[in-house]
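Our consortium's second objective concerns turning raw sequence data into structural hypotheses that experimental partners can test. To show how far this objective has progressed, the report includes one record in full. It was chosen at random from the queue rather than selected for favorable results. The single chain below, 253 residues long, was entered without modification.
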Amino acid sequence: MNNISILKTILKELGIESAKTIEENVDLQYHYLENLQKTLNNDELFLKLVIINAIVSYQLSTTGENWWKEFSEYNWDNVSKNKNDLFEEYILFLSNSKGNKRLNNIKIKRINKIKPFLDDLSIADLENYYLNMNLFRDSIAKQLNTKKESKTVVFAVKMFGYASRMVFKKFIPYPYEIEIPKDSRIEKYTKRFTDNNVIKFWNNISKETGIPPLHIDSILWSALGNSADVKIRLKLLKNNKIYEMINKLINLY
């Protein structure tokens, strides 16, 4: 059995439910969002803040986990008292952040581009976008004037999905049409199996295993990261099979 066949077998055995378990119990970013939602006690504001933070979560000065921790621990009291201060307060947070210091002028322009779109959204609109994440992706890409498969747009969908899962208390799998975020980690791992197009490779794996690409990304993230916290959280899962399967994925690397 070649490595691609082994990869498919492992992913099929894991399935969407294991990806969901990893996202909700291993991904520290999910944990930080849960804490933020409880602190804010304002679901519309929570969802909008998550979207804003996601679209500027690139070229970080720290790890993604540390950045989302900093974001979740910021005192958003001024915003929760007056929704109109949302963008002004976020820009203040970004400008003074420790984990996101690069390209701030470009990132602030992005925030201003997304402002008219987010301003008009009600909680019902946000729920409709959760029910149709393809439309959410297309709307974000259009608003930012960028490609819908761009890493930032796809990541925004992922984090919006996390936050919406908490707010609307239901799990909706990510659509198959939304591609895996192509970064150096994924590119390097993909070379273990093929020299062909990275996105096309994982799209094919997704169809054959029945796991949407963004959920495959969650599984691979837990396998390829170096975080000690992530490894501990994987070991502590009630379902030991997940830990065993993740180790098999690592050994394919």
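The partners drew two points from this record. The mean pLDDT is 94. The chain has two domains: 3-26+176-251, 28-168. Both points have been shared with the crystallography group to help prioritize constructs.
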